[in-house]
Write a structure and sequence with these properties.
Length: 226
């Protein structure tokens, strides 16, 4: 049985020896890695349908003048965390990176255990960002639908589409959607917390809650149909 990937990482660096060694080490830790040699190739790869969880990028690689790739990252891949690496540290680049969406600034040769901890943090950041964005989208849709029902009721409208069953169905569907996003986020993080009692307890609690909502919604629909 194939082992689930812990996350997908894009490594952008023109130093092939470093890139190959880092990608190999991360793959051994269970991460899926793609490598590109410059900033332009990184931007092109991030614009594809592939969804990355983390970017590890060299500061001085071609196609990244004045950290242009990182500056434009929110427009290319919103919420993607970045670890910057360099063999030529200087105060200017360090100060510039402090104002950008950068998780950490590391000097080559990197300390791999330290990098690995940062990678875990980056993957967690990415998973939480996506779950939060999707839950916010669902809540906006829920609010819009609820306001529509409120307006219809205020006008004296009636019918099954705005009755108790419709309201319960709307609420149940959106609550289940939010819980599904939490469950998906937790499953993405599961490889990092396998065997944890807290992780297992939370996963089971989410599953139980989803089952309760599904049963409640179905029961209410049956009662309304009688």
């Amino acid at each position: 049985m194939a082992i689930a990937s812990k996350g997908k990482i894009l490594i952008a660096d023109d130093e092939k020896t470093f890139v190959d060694a880092l990608a190999d080490l991360l793959r051994r830790e269970g991460y899926e890695c793609q490598t590109v040699p410059d900033g332009l190739a990184a931007a092109a790869e991030l614009n594809t349908a592939h969804q990355y969880d983390l970017l590890i990028a060299d500061i001085r690689m071609p196609g990244n003048p004045d950290l242009e790739l990182i500056k434009h990252l929110p427009q290319i891949a919103e919420g993607l965390p970045v670890i910057l690496v360099t063999a030529y540290p200087d105060a200017t680049s360090a100060l510039k990176s402090a104002d950008l969406p950068v998780l950490s600034y590391m000097i080559k040769p990197v300390n791999f255990p330290e990098l690995l901890n940062l990678v875990r943090r980056g993957i967690e950041h990415s998973a939480v960002f996506r779950a939060n964005r999707e839950i916010a989208r669902r809540l906006e849709a829920w609010t819009s639908d609820a306001r529509m029902i409120e307006q219809l009721l205020a006008k004296g409208a009636s019918g099954p589409e705005i009755g108790p069953a419709a309201f319960v169905n709307l609420s149940t569907r959106n609550l289940l959607g939010c819980l599904s996003e939490l469950d998906a986020m937790w499953r993405r993080l599961a490889p990092h917390s396998a065997g944890s009692a807290d992780a297992n307890a939370l996963s089971e609690a989410i599953d139980r809650t989803m089952r309760v909502f599904e049963i409640t919604g179905a029961s209410f629909q049956q009662r309304e149909a009688r």
